[in-house]
Amino acid sequence: MSDKLNTSRRRFLQGSVATVAGVAFGGSLLTKPVFANEFPSGRIEVLVPFSPGGGTDRSVRLVTPAWQTTLGMSDPFRLNHSPGAGTLIAQNALKDASHDGHTVLFTPAPHVAWLSVLQSDEFSLGQVAWLGSYFQDPNVLLVPSDSPYQTAQELIDDARETGRTLTASVSSPMSAAHAATVVLRERAGINIRIVPFDGGGEARNAVAGGHVDLCMAPYWSAINVLELTRALCIFADEDPSTGLWDAPPAKEELDFEMPNLYEPYGAMVSAQVRDDHPDTFERLSSTFMKALESDEFREAAEDQDIHFFAQAWGPDRMNQFIEEYIALLDEFRPAMEQDLEEM
């Protein structure tokens, strides 16, 4: 592996030890051990591995009030934003916190898969346990509203015929958006140059402003640029929403096969909570699922247009997704690492 690739990877994964320590010990993450019948004995910390205002943060704020109700808590969850290092900072904070169930991490599942592949010396799937997923965000192919392309196949055909290199914004190198874009590029046999940004919001603003040709983005997380973009297709069996992008399925638009691409957002605790405190883990898991069925969550989700994508997945389904996603990464990782050398 070249020095340049190592440098790019280090830049992507960099995060200071001091920051991790500050997240882990600066708040009330460390709580004394409790017995299951006393749980929760205090406020629950929610680690969010991204900055406030993004899709993960917004979705967490929808589900945690309902979960607070089903847990019977008087104090609201405390959100602790721990961005950086491809979510490794937040994962390290979870690892360093007391394993009594009072620290929960919310994250898109693809980032967990990526850490297990790229940072196997610092993170393993065996150190975490899923509670479940509360919504699954399908990818859409976005172009600026004034783009000359009216369909996804028209964009592909033009790139093939002219040999032109298209530009695509992604939230960061080696991210779920990067992976989705590379799958499209390799399957279509066209040239796409990856343009990384510092977060999904900036990447979506880039396509909305016409600074890049396209952006592979999670549907709900990108609705803030709805009026400034068009979705040429959705990488799912159908567009579950009405009145938003109304995107046609990729399988009906493209002359080549594309997998369904989506990002399940889920909650997890350390595996030690599950193994050492099974009653606490069961209480967390069951009340989380109950919250997703509550009127409180459903009304909040509908108000934010997330109800189209809200579906409860249990731990087994989340683990299955991780396994399938890692298989996808194995196929396209070399092409993604080549992108790093060109950034």
UniProtKB/TrEMBL annotation:
Residues spanning the signal sequence: none
Source organism, top-level taxon: Bacteria
The UniProt record lists the keyword Signal: yes
InterPro entries: BUG (IPR005064), Bug_dom1 (IPR042100), TAT_signal (IPR006311), TAT_signal_bac_arc (IPR019546)
Transmembrane region(s): 12-30
Keywords associated with the record: Membrane, Signal, Transmembrane, Transmembrane helix
A family per Pfam: TctC
NCBIfam families: TAT_signal_seq
PANTHER family per the UniProt record, alphabetical: BLR1237 PROTEIN (PTHR42928:SF5), TRICARBOXYLATE-BINDING PROTEIN (PTHR42928)
Family the entry assigns: Belongs to the UPF0065 (bug) family.
UniProt protein name: Tat (Twin-arginine translocation) pathway signal sequence
